[in-house]
Amino acid sequence: MTKDLRFKKGFTPLESVGSQVGHGKKIFKKRNGPNVSDSFLTGFTLAEILVVLAILSALASFGYLVTIDFYKSYAFNCERNAVVAILQKARSQSLANINESAHGVHFFPDGYIIFQGDVYSSEASTNQIFPAAAGIANSGITDVIFAQLSGDAIPDGNLILNDGKRTAAISVNAAGQINW
Asked: Which domains does the chain have, with CATH numbers?
């Protein structure tokens, strides 16, 4: 029985030529084309598979690069926000007159330390240490001290965060205002 395949979508119109020939195989004829056995009618060619793999590889590579850049940007912004929060915490401790002392922040390559007093001392038991994120360097001012009760900053200046691709400046003015 021959079916008319012209109206089936997604298929190459083939028509059956005869019933069964040889070892149980039917011979099909592509319209206006040579005879083709049914073993060659299914599957994809090697070229089609390679083209699809190339497209998928290109999309995966692009997605990987975008994801890595997004992650690094997010990590950098988190580090900037953490430094601002540390500065705000030290200033608020000075304004609240915690332990009746000035408070400050010491910046070093591996992290940040909130300290009490007018001068940073690495041996003080009241130091609060916050580690810095890997790959982000800081430069600029090394110590900011917020005056007791007024919150004025000594010295005023900028702290620069840099990860090689992005740079952020956090400035502290003489009145203790923190801008980023």
From this structure: 14-47 (no CATH), 76-179 (3.55.40.10)
